[in-house]
Amino acid sequence: MQNENYQLILVESIEENEEGELQVLDTGETDPGGETNEMQLSILSKEGMNTYNTFKVRVQIRTTSQRKSVIILIDSGDTHNFIYQSLVKDMGLNYNANSGFKVKLGNGDYFVNNGKCEQLPIRVQGLCITQDFYLLELGGTDLVLGIEWLASLGEVQVNFSDLSIKWKEKGKDKMLKGGLELNRTKASWKSVLQTLQQEGEGYLIHYEVTDSSKQDQELRREWEELIGEFPKVFQKQVGLLPKRACDHAINIKEGALIPNSKPYRYPHYKKDEIEKLVNDMLNTGILRPSTSPYSSPVIMVKKKEGGWRICGDYRALNKITIPDKFPISVIEELLDELGEAHVFSKFDLKSGYHQIPMKESDIPKTAIRTHEGHYEYVVMPFGLTNAPSTFQTLMNYILKPYLRKFVLVFFDDILVYSKTVEDHREHLRKVLKLLQDNQLVVNKKVLFWAERARLLGSYNISSRGLG
């Protein structure tokens, strides 16, 4: 690209959401040269942000059965070309699902693309651009043309004042013009100078407004009213468990030897932590002292918010447990039920497994041994082979009246979805009443009245579908 010797450094701050958006993933895939196949994507492209000179163009994508007008962003900060993955699925475009590569975001995070559309033709302003596009979740734009395409043009002249790109192709002049109407205007130079003279400092700020503050405050007020209406659902501690529709049973294979393992060795500081955690669980009724012939060692698991939790290493017990035949739903099939939903709220149970009681006769089978004693779980512990199916069975039973209508449940993720805010208000009230009637407690940290949500850490849903 031909340009003056000016340098613009655009600093953009993207806050991580409650669920830790933009996870760091590593495919471990390498190219023949032994280096990681690393693509780069700017935050501008990933989030679909607009500046006064963002280069966006309306283009046409055609298939044998449909034609669609979409927005494409041209960005020299991206190494490759990308396409919004929901657009690919909506239009039924062919793509290679095995072409997964790491993509590095401008802030240093990594994530993985979900496939590649090979040689996709794009029609724009009398031109036909045919390129490979990698599937990705994009915001505010449908496609991105990066260096991969720009480098193929040879010598390029770019004019940001009228948003035009010029190049030669087979001796003929070619030009592509960006849509000024697709961008927001810039601050006047007079106002910038006035700020510098008065304050002595200047800032380049990019501010994305997602919802009006008034509307956001109103929704937050309504959510706080719902919390007040159903306080037991949001209490800090899980109380004594009621009789559930199902408890957790451990059925042992006939003739199997009872596992009786010694505790693992831990350094002194971890023993202190184990003692503290065991005492906490004894006080809350999760554990009780045991004289069971069963014994599993404990393992320490680092919690993502910091601190530790302990659970039994039940591998030996699981080997002699008869597995359930409960069919776990395929997440993609569940998401097909969302239909035309535009509003989403999501919450999960507080220590969900510990809200399900153990079958009394099977409590001794959960026994764990630490350096200081022998204990057994009164509630369903983590790590048992059939625990997920028991949990899903209970949630399906409790929320059955509303499943496939406005509720989706996948393990401890409860998603409430609605077409309108008015419907959503009523749907939330019905779900929270069911949870309170069944003495289930959820985490107070929730996603509410959102236009998009993330399930299981990797499935992003919105009114545009799964992407």
Automatic annotation (TrEMBL):
Segments forming domain Reverse transcriptase: 282-460
Signal peptide: none
GO biological process, one term: proteolysis
PROSITE patterns for this protein: RT_POL (PS50878)
One Gene Ontology molecular-function label: peptidase activity
UniProt entry keywords in alphabetical sequence: Endonuclease, Hydrolase, Nuclease, Nucleotidyltransferase, Protease, RNA-directed DNA polymerase, Transferase
Protein's UniProt name: Reverse transcriptase domain-containing protein
Upper taxonomic lineage: Eukaryota, Viridiplantae, Streptophyta, Embryophyta, Tracheophyta
